[in-house]
Specification:
Blueprint: H1 6-16, E1 20-24, H2 28-41, E2 45-49, H3 51-57, H4 59-70, E3 77-84, H5 87-96, E4 100-103, H6 110-126, E5 130-133, E6 140-142, E7 145-147, H7 156-166, E8 170-171, H8 190-199, E9 204-206, H9 214-223, E10 225-230, H10 232-252, H11 257-279
Parallel strand pairs: 1-2, 1-10, 2-3, 3-4, 4-5, 5-8, 9-10
Antiparallel strand pairs: 6-7
Helix pairs in contact: 2-4, 2-11, 6-7, 10-11
Binding site for Zn(2+) 1: 83, 179, 207
Keywords: Metal-binding, Zinc
Binding site for dihydroxyacetone phosphate: 180, 208-210, 229-232
């Protein structure tokens, strides 16, 4: 098993109607902990890196971490570049070894988005990589990319034309979901997912997963959301776990960084394992 492809992982999940956690990592600790959680759950996992993370750590260092941490791993894992509007960064990551990318040209007119996505798909294929596409911005800013203003939703006809003419492997529609922390329970357009899947069976990516209810997750996964993105929940877990440990360390006047790292790792492993169990991917490796 070990390093797999996006298509292999999500196609099976789509056929069997479970969701694969696609978790944005921010450093070496979170990458290792997410992978360890997937191993514990016997679940496939998609490890995601934002453009911000790629630029802050560097693609060479990030990919070296990935190669080291996945050597000998026995569950299917994928390395995915999330929400990238920059063609140069996509090329850099594909050349480095990422095997999945989301080309986010949602701010462009649909025709131009489609034209460039065709080019990205062709480029990715030369590396044996796969592509996720979208034509509408998911509301909310994540790692400096996006907008808090909801974008107009395209018609089913336009969505299907984009899917068919670009050849993307996964499609991410806007359905009322949002990046970041929800201030209230979102109102989701379940029908939009079912209409797309009925007309063109393709694995759907669910963005803005942090904060959805268990019922919403279950229904969307049953409809075909085979890739479930989680970013905010990991960031919150990372920061709150660190804060709790540091407050206790201050109270005890005990300062031991490796113990801090171990504490945070435990919480992120538990988060990953819990997501796999919730989405139905546990035991699917």
């Amino acid at each position: 098993m070990s390093v797999s492809t996006l298509k292999a992982v999500v196609d099976r999940a789509f056929a069997e109607r479970y969701g694969v956690p696609a978790i944005n990592v921010v450093n070496d600790l979170t990458m290792e902990a997410v992978l360890a959680g997937a191993v514990e759950a016997r679940s496939p996992v998609i490890v995601q890196t934002s453009v911000k993370t790629v630029k802050s750590i560097g693609s060479r260092v990030l990919f070296s971490m990935w190669e080291s941490m996945t050597a000998g791993i026995d569950v299917p894992v994928v390395l995915h570049l999330d929400h990238c509007p920059e063609r140069a960064v996509i090329t850099e990551c594909l050349e480095r070894g990422w095997n999945s990318v989301l080309f986010d040209a949602s701010r462009l007119p649909v025709a131009e988005n489609q034209r460039q996505t065709v080019e990205v798909v062709a480029e990715a294929r030369t590396f044996g990589a796969h592509v996720e596409g979208e034509i509408e911005s998911i509301t909310g800013v994540e790692d400096g990319i996006g907008s808090d203003t909801a974008s107009a939703r395209q018609s089913l006809e336009i969505s299907l034309r984009f899917i068919e003419e670009t050849g993307v492997d996964v499609f991410a529609p806007a359905i009322g979901n949002a990046h970041g922390v929800y201030t209230r329970e979102p109102v989701l357009d379940f029908r939009r997912v079912s209409d797309i899947v009925s007309a063109h069976p393709i694995p759907i990516a669910l963005h803005g997963g942090s904060g959805l209810t268990p019922g919403q997750f279950s229904e969307l996964i049953a409809l075909g959301c085979a890739k479930v993105n989680i970013s905010t929940a990991l960031k919150i877990t990372f920061m709150q776990s660190s804060l709790a440990y540091l407050k206790d360390a201050e109270a005890r006047d005990k300062w031991d960084p490796p113990s801090l790292f171990g504490h945070v790792r435990t919480d992120i492993v538990a988060l990953t394992r819990g997501l796999a169990e919730q989405f139905g991917s546990a035991g699917k490796a």
